[in-house]
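Today's session is about reading a structure prediction critically. Students often jump straight to the picture, but the first step is always the sequence itself: look for stretches that repeat, for charged clusters, for runs of hydrophobic residues. Only then move on to the predicted structure, which in these notes is written as discrete structure tokens rather than atom positions. Here is the chain we will use throughout the hour.
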Amino acid sequence: MRVLLVEDDLDLQQQLKIQLETAKYSVDLADDGEIGLFQGQEYNYDAAIIDLGLPKVDGKTLIKSLRSQGISFPILVLTARDRWQDKVDGLDAGADDYLTKPFHQEELLARLNALIRRSVGQSSPVISNGPFVLDTASMLVKVDDSEVSLSSYEYKVFEYLMLHQGQVKSKTELTEHIYDQDFDLDSNVIEVFIRRLRKKLDPQGQYQFIETLRGQGYKLRQFPSD
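Below is the predicted structure for this chain, in token form.
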């Protein structure tokens, strides 16, 4: 999952970046609202974390601008302000949730995880699809009740496909959602990760769970629910 973090407190920004990357998010940074607006318009994010008290363009104006352009990724607001009206203003501008500083970073991760899940219609952190189970909170993957170890980027690809079961996802879209903005989109790493996922999660090929659609991308098979 790729996240935009707009925070002008550089110490906090770096702390959150490390925490998010540890939780297997790819993170793009902005330290003022002007840069945040450009990035939000330019790139396809799974979610954004936006501080309200930003220089150049404040967080409320930034959120309103994104929403007015039809940009709908979930937004979590950060604010150091105590007044309830500031929280209401952030939500009224188009944010989906808020946290007041100081906060526990574990709570931020839990709220962010929930926002992303809900944006694709998943209410539970545990996503099941036939023999495959992915726990987005603990980042565990199981096949037929047996845990399977995935690398960070293998997990990111599988998580994205599990959140979009039955949908065709191009190599470019997958790359954009698991890497930050500096990555070479022409790389063939997605093909490598898909091959590794097939080998690790379905070594006998009995489930045929990732379909390759020539010229279009990849689709995770959606198994009938029990």
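Discussion point for the tutorial: Residues 2-119 form a domain with the Rossmann fold fold (CATH 3.40.50.2300).
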